[in-house]
Design brief:
- The chain has about 450 residues and is an alpha/beta fold.
- It folds into two domains: about 25-390, Glycosidases (TIM Barrel), CATH 3.20.20.80; about 400-455, no CATH class.
- Helices cover about 35% and strands about 15% of the residues.
- The strands form three sheets. It has an eight-stranded parallel sheet with strand order 7-6-3-2-1-10-9-8.
- It starts with about 25 loop residues before the first helix and ends in a 5-residue tail after the last strand.
- InterPro entries: GH, TAT_signal.
Length: about 450
């Protein structure tokens, strides 16, 4: 394929992403918002009513009217109303999706209009005291693929590898700089999330990536994030896949890359809900398990874990069970010391006028598509209010389940996941520790671990 330009020019299909898993306000108000002064870091910054929560609560924003096609079909009144909904729950942040192919259709060109809209979205969020995590290289969102045209060869249709091609990576770094130049000092900009599960973009397009190459991509992109937007929360949104396979990234690399470790915990996508039962220990403590598992791979004990996506659909369980499942799941996560925050997927049900999505994508919202609060939304609102009044205090985890360093933690759910859940059923609050750390007494003491058990002991 011809080489991409290396010198920046002036600034100005559908697939089920989890199928690879083996188990098979009025016009006047709108005008005022449009003309409001951008909230910049050098302006008077408000304290932020929720930024000092022990556990931060947010939601993955999905526009109720035009989904993320909203970047092209912008409706600020609808978006403002959506954000009012989110703020009414007591949320302190949102995570948003840029559409890569819309924002950067050419290697050396970023659409200025979309940067304007991104900045306006942060302004709208600011009026509602919502911080914003911006997810950038989105080639796959809710099972829909978005391929930037400059990646595609016009001679044979092959697609450049977004994780290994040096010229593509340089263009990715340039894009981060362009976005940061526009919003990097906005007081509501939390940071960059590199991508929404970029492996589900790479896999169906045949992009071969070794774990070393995946780790190197993280290093290169996070170095750029810190250079163009220093001191922000920069993460990589990844689900269960590299914890079930030796694929794309090393688990040690995931435990050190970026500001904190982000993870997407979907007990339905991995068939845990279906296999163990809606309100089983394994289902309601699934996210807790991942928080504790990931913590075992942290070299820095102060490093935090962000459950950046979690959610549930009526495709996976009866609607009557969803509020109970949600409350139990959140309480279990909040009982973990290393938890930064929980960002639910998602804000609003998918607009039924849009076709071609997997069925469950249509009812994952806390609000219906016409902005009616659902029982799950009421449950989360209640918990947020409770935790604001009485912040959750994590339980000590004196017992740790030992994970062999060479074990793929959830290649199946019998070898390690099941023993963890048996300990929970016995009334334990287990931690996880790598076998190679079991003789490090200072490390164990720093985590409050006094008793080690192996999976065979359980």
């Amino acid at each position: 394929m011809p080489e991409l330009p290396a010198t920046p020019a002036p600034d100005r299909t559908s697939i089920d992403r989890r199928k690879f898993f083996g188990v098979t306000a009025g016009a006047a108000a709108a005008s005022a918002l449009l003309n409001s002064t951008a909230a910049r870091a050098d302006a008077a910054v408000p304290t932020g009513r929720h930024r000092h929560r022990r556990v931060r609560f947010g939601v993955n924003y999905v526009p109720s009217e035009n989904w993320w096609f909203s970047w092209s079909d912008w409706d600020r009144r609808s978006i403002a109303a959506d954000l009012d909904d989110i703020a009414s729950l007591g949320m302190d942040h949102i995570r948003i999706m840029l559409i890569w192919s819309e924002l950067q259709p050419n290697a050396t060109y970023v659409r200025g209009e979309l940067l304007d809209r991104l900045e306006e979205l942060l302004d709208l969020a600011d009026r509602r005291h919502l911080d914003v995590e911006v997810t950038v290289f989105n080639g796959a969102v809710s099972g829909v693929l978005f391929v930037p045209p400059f990646l595609i060869s016009n001679s044979d249709g092959t697609i450049r590898n977004v994780l290994t091609d040096p010229t593509v990576i340089e263009r990715e770094q340039w894009l981060l700089g362009q976005i940061a130049e526009r919003i990097g000092r906005h007081r509501r900009f939390m940071g960059f999330d590199l991508s929404n599960e970029i492996h589900w973009f790479a896999k169906p397009l045949g992009m071969a990536v070794t774990q070393a190459q995946g780790d190197a991509w993280h290093t290169a992109l996070f170095d750029t994030c810190e250079k163009v937007a220093p001191g922000k929360i920069h993460v990589s949104g990844i689900d269960h896949w590299p914890w079930q396979n030796n694929d794309f990234w090393t688990r040690q690399g995931l435990g050190t890359a970026g500001t904190m470790t982000a993870n997407h915990t979907w007990a339905g996508w991995t068939q845990v809900i279906q296999r163990y039962g809606s309100l089983s220990t394994s289902s309601t403590h699934y996210s807790e398990f991942f928080v504790e598992l990931i913590q075992a791979f942290h070299a820095d004990l102060k490093r935090q874990i962000w459950i950046e996506e979690t959610g549930v659909s009526t495709v996976w369980m009866d609607a009557a069970d969803i509020p109970t499942w949600t409350e139990r799941s959140i309480r279990a996560m909040a009982d973990c010391t290393g938890l930064f925050g929980i960002t639910w997927w998602d804000s609003h049900d998918l607009n039924p006028k849009l076709t071609g999505y997997v069925d469950l994508e249509y009812d994952l919202g806390l609000f219906t598509n016409d902005r009616k609060l659902k029982p799950i939304g009421r449950t989360i609102r209640k918990l947020i209010a409770e935790y604001d009044a009485r912040p959750p205090s994590p339980s000590p985890r004196a017992t740790a389940l030992v994970l062999p360093d060479d074990m793929i933690p959830v290649a199946d759910f019998t070898a390690f996941f099941d023993p963890f859940m048996k300990l929970v059923d016995r009334g334990e609050r287990p931690a996880v520790v790598l076998q190679s750390r079991t003789t490090d007494t200072a490390y164990l003491a720093s985590r409050g671990i006094t008793h080690l058990v192996t999976p065979r002991d359980v």
